[in-house]
Predict the 3D structure of the following.
Amino acid sequence: MRFSWSIPLLLSAALLVRLPANAAPGSGRIAGIVDATVVDDPANAFVYVDDVPGRTFPPPPQPAVMGQRQMQFVPHVLPVVRGTTVRFPNDDHVRHNVFSPSSAKPFNFGIYYPREERQLTFDRLGTVTLLCNIHEQMSGYVVVLQNPYFARLGADGSFAIEDVPDGQYSLTLWRERRPRPTQPVVVRGTTTNVRFSR
Ligand SMILES: [Cu+2]
């Protein structure tokens, strides 16, 4: 009798797991794993679909946030869809002067004080390296993507991207200061499993 409650629970759990594959007609799920040898720091890596041809994707209505806290960028890496506005609140007790030399979005905010913030809209694809003119140890990234089909990695390197339109794509692993491997992926209504192993 002690197991009688758990069977309905397990059935419910199974149904929940199945839901994403049924979420939208004509779409599927990309799930996989990045081996530990491939990423030094899973928290600062993510996978993304390079390009969904012929489609444009609106940025989210709410800005994303790239804070400065204890003289670090938080989060260290921020993937966004093209057109997203990012707020840069200074949550520290010291001044910052965030800038970027990257061709995807060169800018320089100048000096701003604690509790002030700047904001910027990222309208070109690519990796935008963030630096601070005052604190040379500070570095971070805004990565501007064509579409919202990206996912951060779990601590074990696992990831899942939901509701990807059926099609053939390149899936890229973004990681810091290392080449970014790409592999082909086909989505056909169900879950496609991929693995980055080198
Ligand atoms: Cu600074």
Summary: Residues 1-5, 7-21 have pLDDT under 50 and may be disordered. Residues 71, 96, 132, 134-135, 138 surround copper (II) ion (CB under 6 Å). The two ends are 49 Å apart (CA to CA).
